[in-house]
Amino acid sequence: MPDLTKTPATDEAHAVAIADADAKAVDTVEAAGKPRSLWGDAWRDLRRRPLFIVSALLIFVVLLVAAFPGMFTSADPRSGDLTNHFLQKPNFGHVFQPDWFGYDRQGRSIYARVVYGARNSIVVGFGVTILVTVFGGLVGMLAGYFGGFIDSLLSRLTDVFFGIPFLLGAMVVLNAFTERNVWVITGALAFLGWTQIARVMRGAVITTRHADYVMAAKALGAGTKRILFRHILPNAIAPVIVIATIALGTYIVAESTLSFLGLGFGGDALSWGGDISDALADIRNNPHTLFFPAGMLSITVLAFIMMGDAVREALDPKLR
User: Model confidence over 135-189: pLDDT tens digits?
Assistant: First the structure.
């Protein structure tokens, strides 16, 4: 017997619901069957990794501190009060206050100096990373793609710079400048730091240049520039990104080391390395003067290393 409780409106609504459900099912199947790119798979994998989430949060906080130090403290990092604040111990009950990390032997707030010192270190780290990635990546890409004489010439040039000790070479270069600011230090480190990126890019391009899609692009008459930047670069840059992410922390350490040795920022410029150097005189009786700038430096470098490891595991299918 027909169901007398149903009406034409009910049947129509039921049919519409079934059609919507079928459409959603088709969309789901299509979405599931659609192949994702390497970057899509990597991003999907990264979002599930606690290591990436923790490192990304740490890096975000450090970048926020470097960009807007006034949001975190109103104290003047260069102003000292020897009468009241000489080597005063930390007051952990006053969070985000000038006396939170204590004071140094000049009566200056260590917390304020740690906050304001982040900017120079971060700017140098990112500046060097961008320069070495662009220049080293270009050198490696040209050497790997053209081969022959060009490869030999660029590879020998890379070997010459690779043979120069990084920090020692940077010290020699910086000694030639009477005024050492952010741009001078960034240029000196980038001048010697591009070799590893070049080697990694060269190897990746050599592996990629014989791929089917590159041969097809050549057969269709694509120019060298289009092949390099539209077909080879997107598929060869993954290992370079991993190396650059980890190296960024290394460049921050290099800047702090140079400042520690007195070859970094001059004058009254703020730097974690300079504060670590100043704290050596009080390390035994007042270790807090060393602990906080060194701790901030270590946390920042560790965050970038963790980020690099997470990106490496996400981009390498063998490590998933």
Answer: 999 999 999 999 899 999 999 999 999 999 999 999 999 988 888 889 999 999 9
Q: How far apart are CA 261 and CA 277, in angstroms?
A: 8
pLDDT category, 42, cuts 50, 70, 90? confident
DSSP, residue by residue, the chain = ---TT--HHHHHHHHHHHHHHHHHHHHHHHHHHSPPPHHHHHHHHHTT-HHHHHHHHHHHHHHHHHH-GGGT--S-TT-B-HHHHTTPPP-TTSTTSTTSS-B-TTSBBHHHHHHHHHHHHHHHHHHHHHHHHHHHHHHHHHHHHH-HHHHHHHHHHHHHHHTS-HHHHHHHHHHT-SS--HHHHHHHHHHHH-HHHHHHHHHHHHHHTTSHHHHHHHHTT--HHHIIIIIIHHHH-HHHHHHHHHHHHHHHHHHHHHHHTT-SS-TT---HHHHHHHHGGGTTT-THHHHHHHHHHHHHHHHHHHHHHHHHHHH-GGG-
- How far is the C-alpha of 289 from the C-alpha of 90, rounded, in Å? 9
Model-level pTM?
0.83
Q: Per DSSP, what are the bridge partners of residue 108?
A: 80
Rounded to an integer, what distance in angstroms lies between the CA atom of residue 78 and that of residue 195? 38
Q: Cα–Cα distances in Å, from 298 out to 8, 67, 182, 187, 301? A: 71, 19, 21, 23, 5
Residue with tokens 């990629």: 208
Question: Stretch 238-245: mean pLDDT, rounded?
Answer: 91
